[in-house]
């Protein structure tokens, strides 16, 4: 939020200052004037600051504190490193990280590439682009729970749609969500379908900002479709692509809804247990808020570290 | 002009800023208001602080109580309101503020958050297994001194094993409303169609397997036997199954896993055989509470391990019919998992509030012939009468309640005869139950989703993990 624009006369020091006042008085007066000038801006800012304080920063501070506390017989005591020791000793901890990283890798492979390709294809259409955009974005408008339950039905090994389709082509039925080898991939497919509409529209907007002359020049130089994408489209959308990559990694590392609803959380032999699902288990099923907070802290540190490294690398590549 | 205009705008800005700050401050103050404490709701003290003294009729008390039936359960709600009226004839000084929640009265995630926020009502509903969690959160009053044969006249007839579950270090923290033991729930219609005798449900796992196979042969998507393997419910049922066979999940010290035994292997091997060799458990797995009830209520499932109140749920929520179900003891019948529900009183409640809370619980849940045990009224309201639950009475109260229950039964009670005539010793859940169940879910989902599951490996991995959990108590 920007401060109100001031007229020149308001921005200059007041002429009503006492003759002979020293520099401290004048600085204080200047400060007070500045406060008065920006009063409404500060007033509006207070709302945002308080909201962030109470609903974002305070919970984060509390999480940090909770990560080093435990509750026993009605008493809250300092637990030292025991919550962290507990989560590192929990065999589900490493499995959850492996599963989460697998989800992230698969989600990037599908969720990053597919929307970009769809956006490139959509951008080539001269007619009906609006309708196609609507079609692509439609799944995002469905409530996530409805979409997930739809996929749960599709994946059912007994009466699900996907196995019926395989049957038509004479292919063997699959276990989908009930097989340790395919459970996570099935979750990723559902998640990609649900979420790719938003990414596609962002890529499309970026593509439409690329000057047509660049493509014309590339064509004159004899570039085909792939070379145009490689030498024009990707460099021109690099900023958006890198930003989306960062956001997708952060979002996919926090995946919860899809495995929670599709496989009731853990999946076959724990193959879809994710880090955030484990946090949920610790907090709400085991009443172990300390360990939940400790695991949340580990996730926070990892994502913050990743973001910092990523931003640093992006900057150095720009230089 | 411009200068005057600016001054006016600045005044408006200041006023606006002040207004914004005030509104925000008030909003945040409202948000930050802590949950109602026990004495800020118009109560007037004055009663005796002697726990054994009866509630002073002059002391005005307002009680908030959860698990009031929601509007969707019209008959139960009507009975609740009638009971409040009746209770107020004896205790006109006590105002009952019932709080209802749609669905189950207690969902663990919501309950955990409620305890953490200390926002539970004055008198609140819990499961038997929640005591440690409640005490860790300093959530309940010790009511030992308040509960005696005057405040709860039928106290001597309450099964001491049930009351023991609600005690820690000799202190009583709750009073029961219901209890159950697990058994084998069957769909009588499918039993008959498969040529099985619904009056003699299987009593061993071999018989279960044979019956399951026969029922699945009916086709049309019908499964013979169903089992959970997700949401920690798989571990819960593994525990029930191994108890039935005479095994245990944790040893007597409570520090070591005790399920990596031939009995544990038998539980998993039997499920594996039914799922893959016989194909009698259906292809859809990773099921949790609610899924099997839907299958059996729609005649798509022949049997599963359950408690009697599952039948009430299926009839009231899923439109099933009582006469379609029957129950037998848990296969093996060496022991069975038991559980139940109770009410506790919020920590920090005044003595008057505790006395009023106990008086309400006594009237509504612990008096034969009254409240939940007024079977004649339940029959008139078309509510279920005749289920073998609650089942915590002994002695004179049991005789009286059993007689009234069978006199006003609204369902064929003989369908539950195999269950009632073969009582199995109840056994409580293991320590750190949910954490252990989470680990055992993996073994259960392993055999039900992987034809080549290595049972020895599943059990030894689970054993190692449970030992780790128990070591960090």
UniProtKB/TrEMBL annotation, chain A:
It is found in: Cell membrane. It is a multi-pass membrane protein. It comes from the Bacteria. Residues 1-27 are annotated as: Disordered. The chain crosses the membrane at residues 39-58, 101-122, 134-155, 183-206, 237-256, 292-313. Keywords: Cell membrane, Membrane, Transmembrane, Transmembrane helix, Transport. InterPro entries: ABC_transporter_permease (IPR051393), MetI-like (IPR000515), MetI-like_sf (IPR035906). Residues 97-310 form the ABC transmembrane type-1 domain. Residues 1-24 have a biased composition (Polar residues). Belongs to the binding-protein-dependent transport system permease family. This is Sugar ABC transporter permease. It comes from Streptomyces camponoticapitis.
Automatic annotation (TrEMBL), chain B:
It comes from Streptomyces camponoticapitis. Gene3D superfamilies: Periplasmic binding protein-like II (3.40.190.10). Pfam families: SBP_bac_1. Keywords: Signal. SUPFAM superfamilies: Periplasmic binding protein-like II. The lineage of its organism: Bacteria, Bacillati, Actinomycetota, Actinomycetes, Kitasatosporales. Residues 1-29 form the signal peptide. This is Sugar-binding protein. InterPro entries: Bact_solute-bd_prot1 (IPR050490), SBP (IPR006059). It comes from the Bacteria. Residues 33-56 are annotated as: Disordered.
